[in-house]
Amino acid sequence: MAAANLLSRSLLPTPNPTQTSHPNRRSPAVVSFPRRHGRLSVRASVSTASPSPPPQPAATAAGVPKHCFRRGADGYLYCEGVRVEDAMAAAERSPFYLYSKPQILRNFAAYRDALQGLRSIVGYAVKANNNLPVLRVLRELGCGAVLVSGNELRLALQAGFDPARCIFNGNGKTFEDLKLAAESGVFVNVDSEFDLENIVRAARATGKKVPVLLRINPDVDPQVHPYVATGNKTSKFGIRNEKLQWFLDSIKSYPDEIKLVGVHCHLGSTITKVDIFRDAAVLMVNYVDEIRSQGFKLEYLNIGGGLGIDYHHTDAVLPTPMDLINTVRELVLSQDLTLIIEPGRSLIANTCCFVNRVTGVKSNGTKNFIVVDGSMAELIRPSLYGAYQHIELVSPPTPGAEVATFDIVGPVCESADFLGKDRELPTPDEGAGLVVHDAGAYCMSMASTYNLKLRPPEYWVEEDGSIVKIRHEEKLDDYMKFFDGLPA
């Protein structure tokens, strides 16, 4: 298999055949078992013994596998049909992120199937994971992009997303970024009075008429961590609903600069009850009726994203994309609207794990610790808001290994540097592999260089079982370039 054109293949056709690949685009490097490729050639030390068949992902009622990372009968953890231990042997350094490309395809297919019979845009929330090969695959599958910064907009355009399927959100969009949005032709959400003023200025500066949606807060409790609740009255996002008429009158006064085409809401993240979306959609449809009664031709209802996943790996019965869409389907059809949804976590989180090596095991007399080479610098969710992500060892434990309760911690000089607390695990050997699951969303995209922990490489498993490098690791030379040419 040649390294070129790996990303041009997909299981699903793109609805935009006019998009073409860029001739200067570099293909991701491939870690082979044992194939050899141009930019990277790594041979994994694969056992020659007859292995047990790799585990197959168990299908849910909706036909979408819950976890692409599964324990085999041989006791090893697999990603699709590849031992994670073999991926560790092939990777250039640890820690690293390991994805399943087939799981990305399956997750998108779940939304595609759920949206049958509706006019719709699936706008992938780029903030969840901004890896360029991941974005290109989602674009090829037909996704639009949801953007919250000018650089995310630039990246989406570089990845080839259709601007007519892109939405620019945010409560603090700058004038320069809004000019780029106007030039590009993306939808822009109106978030405040000054935001509306800046959109109008950007339209005049570029000579473009900007399609806008009003971000309205339905004030429905999403029943999630307050840090990820975004649709209530205390949120920094959205217009003051009691000023809706002021916004409508203002928009009418700028017929050459802006066109109101829809309404938008976003309740929050990790939502596990679809009736919350239904409650919000009912309120939003009432706003649609009110706005249409004043002569506006609204075409779009954007209900945001936020569908949760099974971070605890307890086989919890959580809403599927089909459950979500069926909750609002009739409302959308009754109003003859195009539905926009903004999935991020539910498209990408469960496609990836964060792979670490154990540096050592220690105890302070009251607490046991597994110290790994990964840290809050590479994966901050547990430290930032106490998020739980399932953790397990990559390989079968050494015979006789004691099972104990551990905190899994990194080397960063902070007591907040932990990946998990109070986890019951077999005592691992030095150098053993340990993974943090469901790391595809809000992990690498939030990584930092604290303690000069440079950001790690990323790989994915292809449909044919080959491992492809999809992001280079950062090196000290990359860091030092920030100071090139500055005074000594």
Automatic annotation (TrEMBL):
InterPro entries: Ala_racemase/Decarboxylase_C (IPR009006), DAP_deCOOHase_LysA (IPR002986), De-COase2_C (IPR022643), De-COase2_CS (IPR022657), De-COase2_N (IPR022644), De-COase2_pyr-phos_BS (IPR022653), Orn/DAP/Arg_de-COase (IPR000183), PLP-binding_barrel (IPR029066). Residues 7-22 have a biased composition (Polar residues). Residues 41-50 have a biased composition (Low complexity). Coiled coil: none annotated. The active site is at C413 (proton donor). Its cofactor is pyridoxal 5'-phosphate. The modification N6-(pyridoxal phosphate)lysine is found at K127. Its EC number is 4.1.1.20. Residues 97-440 form the Orn/DAP/Arg decarboxylase 2 C-terminal domain. GO terms for cellular component: chloroplast. It catalyses: meso-2,6-diaminopimelate + H(+) = L-lysine + CO2. Keywords: Amino-acid biosynthesis, Decarboxylase, Lyase, Lysine biosynthesis, Pyridoxal phosphate. One of its GO terms (molecular function) is diaminopimelate decarboxylase activity. Belongs to the Orn/Lys/Arg decarboxylase class-II family. LysA subfamily. Specifically catalyzes the decarboxylation of meso-diaminopimelate (meso-DAP) to L-lysine. This is diaminopimelate decarboxylase. It comes from Miscanthus lutarioriparius.
